[in-house]
């Protein structure tokens, strides 16, 4: 965990209007995503400092479900004990977790999961992150078994390069964002309706 970031951040969650308003009114708890391809592992996903990207995500969901009413809810978040995959120390922990997962699966004769492209994505962004999710799950599980690693992570934060290059030869991508998976929902300090 890095101790070099500010603890509180503003995150934004794309969702339906019904879900967003019920979160703001505290009528329901956030629901963690648990799919095998979540790139930061299980958690309640937020876009850090980017309400527009959260809205774009909700708009994409509407394309698949015309009854879906896109909405963005703002979240005041204490990162707590954060696995921050934008710093080298935490990236090194992830490498160790990969080595452990690979060794475990090799003994079982089970192949490693793979990250893969989505059929609807022409940018080869590897949107389905089954390998990355498995490595992060393995790291979380290692913490539960009394390993010498730090206490369980409250949040996982990472930079995701996504989308087409901004211009020919660019290293910048059109949908690059910082995303946070909230593992410990007690780190959420409040919700709000952001100005878009």
From TrEMBL:
Domain of life: Bacteria
Protein name: DUF3990 domain-containing protein
């Amino acid at each position: 965990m890095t101790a070099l970031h500010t603890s509180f951040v503003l995150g934004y969650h794309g969702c339906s209007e019904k879900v967003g308003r019920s979160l703001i009114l505290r009528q329901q708890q956030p629901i963690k995503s648990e799919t095998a391809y979540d790139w930061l592992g299980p958690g309640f996903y937020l876009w850090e400092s980017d309400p527009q990207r959260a809205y774009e995500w909700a708009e994409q969901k509407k394309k698949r479900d015309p009854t879906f009413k896109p909405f963005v809810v703002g979240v005041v978040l204490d990162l707590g004990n954060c696995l921050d995959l934008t710093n080298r120390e935490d990236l090194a922990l992830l490498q160790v977790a990969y080595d452990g997962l690979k060794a475990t699966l090799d003994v079982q004769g089970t192949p490693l999961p793979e990250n893969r492209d989505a059929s609807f994505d022409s940018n080869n962004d590897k949107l389905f992150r089954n390998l990355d999710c498995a490595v992060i799950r393995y790291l979380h599980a290692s913490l539960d078994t009394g390993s010498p690693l730090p206490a369980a992570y409250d949040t996982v934060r990472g930079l995701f390069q996504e989308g087409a290059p901004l211009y020919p030869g660019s290293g910048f991508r059109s949908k690059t964002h910082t995303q946070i998976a909230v593992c410990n929902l007690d780190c959420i300090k409040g919700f709000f309706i952001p100005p878009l």
